[in-house]
């Protein structure tokens, strides 16, 4: 794993009345243990990757409590795991990334929701919406509604988040319904504090096993049970949920003296709204708002009578609901209409229908609401002035800057093994002409950004090959599909590879075998060789490919650009039909460096011979064309002023970050770039032979009229 | 607690937290800086909250961290707790930190720096974005505007090259940033607390404390050193030029041009010999005359200087002989050793990546042999088919000897095909420059600038030469011959298009538009 939580997980042991300091994700884990959870599982992905990492690092604590941790093959597997709670009083929790995870999980989720649960079932979803998101922008809300899964959206402070984890299990059990806890990116990474409770040992677990399997056809998803389940959802589970939410006051009401208006807000946006109100002079820092606020810590189901109670007697209410469609706003209209209440509902008319509700958006939206409703006792002009002043700064900044600052999107890390493959693909394209690239999800998706600009479609995780099957037959050149090893095991092996063999599709698949799900933080997968507990697993990609009938398999080290170029050209041009798979082998450089650095440091300290390498550019040879950058984009391959008054363009330069992956040299050769690149190896703790050779070399070069350093001594 | 005391406490309560936004590059350790700030605030018992949006941005992209500190102890608040936000609020940022200049510019652009409130603490060094690096010429952002905007939009700006300060103290840039934050006086935590947090980190403690102290001192002295540590073009002192040529330059060239002309002459002596440098002056003389005649004095002899620069640079074209010479210069190995911080007792092995081919071979052959060979290869698209990838250990006896031998071919350079073909194109360009200057000064300047199209090796060099040749043939030469004035802008457009991409697509369409008008 990229990040270790070995130290932080100790705070999971805190007991009654102690104070926890740490990140949101860790706090959620603590909440799960305080709730007496029996089993946990999930699939990694930002912003909840660390939840899986924390659980893996907390194995010892889980073992003490008897909690089972499963790292699932994908989100469908994780959702199916919750089946344990259908028949038995077992509390379980799973986690995944946003709607993309829920999409994969949805088959199992629908069945789970229909059957209903006996033990509390909690799904922690990282809502990846807005700045920092890496996926398509959709809401989890729609999923919750269509399957009748309750959706929690707590105020983003650790006390409320942990409280909602605990209450979520109770709500789930009280209404026999799985519950989803939605945490936005910033809430997952929020660092704060809360007062802890003792962990609870689950009633049944590995330490106290169940004896009798429960059979109940009523819980099977076949007719007529399914008809009964559908009615049970509405007749029994929904009313039970509403009753629980009301009784335990999961939603919160905050009074305010300007009570002819009010604000209804998703819990996750409460802090943002409060800050906007404070800035507009309508609240103080301690959460005392002049305007009454109704906070929805549960955004599905909504409680109609709470809406009616809050809105009654107000001339207008603002609904702060991020994303679209505006489910809450529509529901509010319906509740008020049925109760014959004439309060004006304001929402998407002053706030944007689509896109993140960042601070400026909230500020402007609330100001427009105030301006439009003119509440009694509020200095509307001052509110409007404040917003105008702040947005004026932004306009002035744009004017001073003249042109927009260049974007800096994420990209391949220094020495990334995936970069050379795209260098090779660019070179192949020069020979074969352009071809369609069916891209996939993973670090390799960065190929779609400069300098490579490669990859025509991205349809989902592990779906690179599957998404080539329609377009492939319609092209002269073969289509190249991309798949990471993560996507391969997630579903690509079946949905892509097995199916392409089955249909005898004539196409080319490039599998990036870097050893981990690297984009999410280097979690282990079957071909890593070990699982999250570092136990050997003995699974590999080639055996899996052969097992589903792939005949044409080539393995190439990613850093061998010339070899990769040759192999890909062969795959593109061979007369052989069927699926041609190239496995691009190269371990994630972050993982390599993480292991290598301490080993090298120790070896140097111990006096062992260690060679330290770095690439360099001879400034005087570089002509400032930057072809090398366009074929690489490595962060450590950069530019600098030439230092030569005759040269106006900046020259290429390799900075200290270089890990000597070798791509610069490979590209210089494969693309016949220029003679500027060199590799320099520094021999640390040189042996007697090293020193003798060095002495001879220096003597010779000195004799040839070379370096004055030739006279320097090699002690 | 009595009522009176309660009143005092509540009156003394701050009405807002200290909001700190940190802009950094993914993987650079902005998280560590945030942790230091949060830990220090926690140590002082303050209420603190931080958040970040690492996500994919941890992979080298721009990212931000956000911290709010309410500088009171929870125990002193009578059960009331401040509501801290997770969203940085334009108009509400007290301290904006940027670990790199472009990211400071992005913060300005996003409205996070406001003159009523924000103290900006930013390093002025640059880490170039991919699109700046990938440009075929100079794609770097003009940082003067960013600095000016940052200074104008902030309450106060602490700007200096923190990367350099970090390097000098062998510390992380984060420790310098933290020191500067503390030195700005806008953090509610004591200096000792912040230093304690660094100390307890246990990694490179002394160095990081030095970095912290340096940052603290510079910020508390209200330093703003916006002079770039890396000038866009640096000028060395005037090089020494031997007797006769030196006298000629002094006698015939105006003062402002002396530095560049001397630079050119000494470069070409070093490249070939004094005779070659003399040829440079012979070629430059008529351009100088044009310049003198067209108010050169008033413009600082811009034309002479630019032409001298372009001409000398071109005449010192990088052929195999030149490359071998550069790779065996006496100062090269010591320079590489220094770059790598190699200790005196550590051997350093330098491996060069060369891939000579038919063109390189032909460059030293006489024209009557080279022309048919290259002609055949060009027709059969085989110009790049015979290249051999070599790893030459230039730090070793064999590699060094081989390179020295290549460099010694300098004596027969003039007999080679490459020499003839470069000189022919240079002469053609010079004719066009002189012709354009006689039409119009601005046009002349643009034609001079076209020399930068010819650069690089192999395919890049072929493309550049053919692009220049094309612009000369289609745009400049017809105009010079017919005496019809063409707009300098047109030449500039064509030149920019030629540098826009490596497929010539942009040049094709621009030329089509220009010629149809």
Topology, pairings included?
The complex is a heterodimer of chains A (715) and B (517).
Chain A (H helix, E strand, L loop, with lengths): L18 E5 H11 L4 E4 L6 H9 L1 H7 L2 E4 L3 H7 L2 H4 L4 E6 H18 L5 E7 L13 H7 L2 E3 L5 H18 L3 E6 H4 L2 E5 L29 H23 L4 E3 L6 E6 L3 H10 L13 E4 L1 E3 L3 H8 L4 E5 L6 H12 L5 E3 L12 H15 L6 H22 L17 H14 L4 E3 L17 E2 L21 E5 H18 L4 E7 L2 E2 L5 E2 L16 H7 L4 E6 L3 H13 L5 E7 L3 H17 L4 E8 L9 H4 L6 E4 L10 E4 L8 H8 L6 E8 L3 H16 L12
Parallel strand pairs in A: 2-3, 2-4, 4-5, 5-7, 6-7, 10-11, 10-13, 13-14, 15-16, 15-17, 17-18, 18-22, 21-22
Antiparallel strand pairs in A: 1-8, 6-12, 9-11, 19-20, 23-26, 24-25
Chain B lengths: L2 H10 L5 E8 L4 H14 L2 E7 L9 E12 L21 E4 L2 H9 L9 E5 L6 H4 L9 H11 L2 E5 L1 H7 L4 H11 L7 H11 L3 H16 L22 H10 L5 H14 L2 H20 L8 H14 L4 H8 L4 H8 L8 E7 L3 H6 L3 H13 L10 E4 L3 H12 L8 H23 L1 H9 L8 H25 L5 H11 L6 H12 L1
Parallel strand pairs in B: 1-4, 4-5, 5-6
Antiparallel strand pairs in B: 1-3, 2-3, 7-8
Helix pairs in contact in B: 2-7, 2-8, 3-5, 6-7, 6-9, 7-9, 8-9, 10-11, 11-12, 11-13, 12-13, 12-19, 13-20, 14-18, 19-20, 19-21, 20-22, 21-22, 22-23
